[in-house]
Write a structure and sequence with these properties.
single chain; 415 residues; Growth Hormone, Chain: A; 19 helices; 0% strand; globular
């Protein structure tokens, strides 16, 4: 148990008043963790654009762009089934360290292949799958770390700060990616590899003993199976999560094609960077405005955010003016944290710490399960439909899903 958590139990009334970012940042191990997230997010932003742009430059194929994006999702589904169980029962700090090192080495491999003129499309797909495999362990381990280091009354602040940092970094990452990609593709990949190694250093400095504790009982196949079932049962036991799962999966299915459409929608890497910057400016605004919804039920910011996102994509179907496109993307960005912060805070608070890793992995698998099909379907649909028509389809069908979610009495009651 952390020092902050002990103080909360000994003097809960005084701790209720201490609910500021200053108190959150006073936790030393959290500062190291958030610093690691900062540099890692910066590198991830550059890597995401670089990977897609590399495939576009090498092939120009929408289907292969869909494949490289699907390759990032499939390991999440495959490994996410059991990664949470292993993270809950293992050394969370070690999982994060190993993930950073392995991902850094993989990206360095892409740099070497490019320098020796050996880089081919299947290698980009393989690299995407490899790095995503380690993401499946790193992400639940990081969630457990936040839940272990940060006391309950500061969890929402921690999620808000994480989202804000992700946003601020997101403003810089596309611009950096645009500059690096204009200079050279391997430079962009090299930048990402460096951020993984810096993140490794910060995580190494974390001293929280709770991240290294292991259960005294050995993990057998029977217990492993039981732990897997526990993750799903935990989610089902939370009424609002249980009621929203099917709708969130369907919404993820509708939104997945956006990752393929935007690289094809823009003319060059600089325009893609500007689109990303506009989106993250919106996310910054949404992150700062999330506190306006504190008095409302959790379903309210989720629905408002989804309407902003889907409505914006619908508007893209009727304009090719790039300035207007940037304005619409900014609105979509505002809606994004309204959805994610509300859902993440709800999840971290409702789910017990000892079940958090497997429960989050299970939730992530459920939400990501529809993406590969959606991405591959997008590559095929682009042969017959325009990008604008697909944006319109995303908006219309996504809106219908949100409406069904709002009209569901079980969700309204439990939210």
């Amino acid at each position: 148990m952390t020092e902050a958590a002990v103080k909360t139990q000994l003097n809960p009334e005084s701790q209720e008043k201490k609910d500021s970012f200053k108190d959150l940042l006073a936790i030393k191990d959290y500062r190291f963790l958030i610093a690691g997230q900062f540099v890692s997010a910066l590198g991830d932003g550059v890597y995401a654009l670089s990977l897609i742009w590399a495939m576009k430059v090498l092939t120009g194929s929408s289907l292969l762009i869909s494949l490289v994006l699907a390759a990032e999702v499939i390991p999440t589904i495959l490994f996410g089934i059991f990664s949470g169980v292993l993270v809950d029962r293992g050394n969370q700090k070690r999982y994060m360290l190993v993930a950073d090192i392995c991902r850094g080495i993989a990206v360095l491999g892409l740099v070497a292949l490019f320098w020796f003129d050996m880089l081919s499309p299947w290698m980009l797909i393989a690299a995407a799958a490899f790095t995503s495999s380690f993401d499946s362990f790193f992400i639940p381990a990081k969630s457990v770390a936040i839940r272990t280091i940060v006391p309950d009354h500061l969890i929402t602040r921690a999620q808000s700060l994480s989202s804000t940092i992700q946003t601020v970094v997101g403003l810089g990452a596309p611009a950096i990616a645009g500059i690096l990609l204009v200079y050279s593709l391997p430079t962009a990949f090299l930048f990402n590899a460096l951020t993984f190694f810096i993140s490794f250093f910060f995580i190494l400095l974390i001293k929280e003993k709770g991240l290294s504790k292991r259960p005294t009982d050995k993990l057998s196949m029977k217990k492993f199976s039981l732990d897997l079932k526990t993750g799903l049962k935990t989610i089902i036991s939370v009424p609002i999560l249980r009621g929203m799962i099917i709708y969130l999966v369907l919404i993820n299915f509708m939104l997945a094609p956006v990752a393929v459409l935007f690289p094809l929608f823009v003319k060059d890497a600089s325009e893609l960077a500007m689109v990303e910057i506009a989106f993250f400016i919106g996310i910054l605004g949404g992150s700062l405005s999330i506190n306006l919804f504190n008095r409302f039920r959790k379903i309210v910011p989720m629905v408002v955010g989804l309407v902003m996102i889907l409505g914006s994509f619908g508007m893209l179907a009727f304009t090719d003016n790039f300035t207007l496109v940037l304005a619409v993307i900014l609105i979509a960005g505002i809606g994004s944290p309204l959805v994610s912060i509300a859902l993440q805070s709800l999840f971290l608070i409702k789910v017990p710490r000892e079940l958090l890793g497997r429960s989050q992995s299970t939730m992530r698998v459920l939400l990501e399960s529809s993406k590969p099909i959606s991405l591959l379907l997008t590559g095929s649909l682009l042969v017959h439909f325009s990008i604008n028509n697909l944006f319109l389809g995303i908006s219309v069908f996504g809106g219908m899903i949100v409406l069904m979610m709002v009209l569901n009495p079980a969700i309204r009651k439990s939210s």
